[in-house]
Design goal:
Largest sheet: 6 strands, mixed
CATH superfamily of the largest domain: CheA-289, Domain 4
Low-confidence stretches: 5-17
Radius of gyration: 20 Å
Order of helices and strands: HEEEEEEHEEEEEEHEHEHEHEHEH
Helix content: 10-25%
CATH architecture of the largest domain: Beta Barrel
CATH topology of the largest domain: OB fold (Dihydrolipoamide Acetyltransferase, E2P)
Distance between the termini: 60 Å
Mean pLDDT: 86
Strand content: 25-35%
Number of helices: 8
Strand order of the largest sheet: 9-1-2-12-11-10
Structural class: alpha/beta
Number of domains: 2
């Protein structure tokens, strides 16, 4: 089972270009059905084949750490974070290890149901107050259609107590008119990541607009004055229209093709970076690296008359 699933993860290549999200569906300890984007999964592990050094802090959702093929992985209690009633640890059989912004986080599941594709119209965006869940979809199991939730793994990472891998970004005190008076347009569906971007650009006194989906950003791009826009920042994993489609729309439109595009994503694999380059974009930063994002803002929006 684990080998077959791992082959699917390793072979995931072109689905994003068709706005298809590949999801790994699984049962939690109490048999609730959740899913995570395959592009964020590094590997699956059989729990009885690894040794976890436990975390003695009972107030933390961090379970402990394990050496997985020479890499240290921190495992967290996904069920507890989601508010699912606790159950005996013996029910868990598989660990899912994800790579988020070059950091590895794992969680236990009772059973992997399978990996399936979902088109954008099969993903329902929830109201903003349900911040731990990004979308809902459905899956058929033994002839019965069941609801499934796709959780915000970036929020899980941020709320797990992981130390930042880069020093906190402190905005320099800009000189008057340090940046050109142009707007930054952003597509980001994670409320956690969107808040970080809002704080980042506000600290630089740069005007910005944030859209929760690539389709909304594309609609806005078709109405803007390109000369009044400094740069575009887009996530990749989004419903309706994803970041790849945002980029393709811009590159195929003469009005928009020269605007700077920065991909700000937690999907940090070399395969993803290669797809972006094929679409004509080379500026790719992981979501946690605000220092790299600031360098790009300096490149594209610093006032040349300063």
């Amino acid at each position: 089972m684990s080998t077959d699933l791992q082959k699917i993860v390793s072979g995931m290549t072109e689905s994003h270009l068709n706005n298809i999200m590949q999801l790994a569906f699984f049962y939690t300890g109490n048999m609730e059905i959740y899913a995570v984007n395959v592009s964020k999964i590094q590997n699956f592990v059989i729990l009885n084949e690894i040794e976890i050094v436990p975390n003695r802090d009972s107030s933390s959702i961090i379970i402990g750490v394990a050496d997985i093929r020479g890499e240290v992985v921190t495992f967290v209690d996904l069920d507890r974070w989601l508010g699912i009633p606790e159950c005996d640890s013996s029910v868990y059989s598989v660990g899912i290890v994800c790579n988020i912004n070059f950091r590895r986080i794992g969680f236990f599941v009772r059973e992997i149901i399978g990996i399936e594709d979902r088109f954008s119209y099969e993903l329902k965006k929830l109201s903003s107050h349900i911040l731990k869940i990004l979308y809902e979809t459905r899956i058929t199991i033994n002839g019965r259609e069941r609801p499934s939730s796709i959780f915000d793994i970036e929020r899980l990472m941020s709320e797990s107590g992981f130390p930042p891998e880069t020093p906190p970004f402190v905005a320099p005190e800009p000189k008057q008119d340090h940046f050109v008076h142009k707007k930054v347009l952003i597509a980001e569906d994670s409320a956690t990541a969107a808040k970080k971007l809002a704080d980042f650009f506000a600290s630089l006194r740069i005007e910005y607009e944030i859209y929760g989906d690539g389709a909304d950003l594309i609609d806005r791009l078709d109405k803007i004055d390109p000369g009044a826009t400094g740069m575009i920042v887009t996530d990749l994993e989004m419903p309706m229209k994803d970041g790849f489609q945002v980029i393709a729309h811009m590159k195929q439109n003469a009005r928009l093709s020269s605007l700077p595009v920065v991909v700000n994503s937690s999907m940090t694999s070399s395969g993803i970076a290669e797809k972006i380059r094929r679409l004509g974009v080379t500026d790719f930063v992981n979501k946690s690296d605000t220092h790299a994002l600031f360098a790009l803002v300096e490149r594209y929006m610093k006032n040349s008359k300063e």
